[in-house]
Amino acid sequence: PESHPNYSYPMCYSPDGRWLAMANYAQTLLYSAKDGKLARKTDNKAAWVTFSPDSRAVAVTSFEGVTEIF
Known about the structure:
It contains no helices and seven strands. It is mainly β and 70 residues long.
């Protein structure tokens, strides 16, 4: 996607260190921290992303304040 110069991309490592979630204005991406391969991609436009304490779920909050869990 096109870059926005004044926007920092939210990222979060899972508590167990296995995953990296990264979000931007167009999508949310979940990568394997071991090999860097894309494991999942959604069309969630996110302002914030975080993992559950057990690393089994990712919460994504949109710019409108809506939170989705996957």
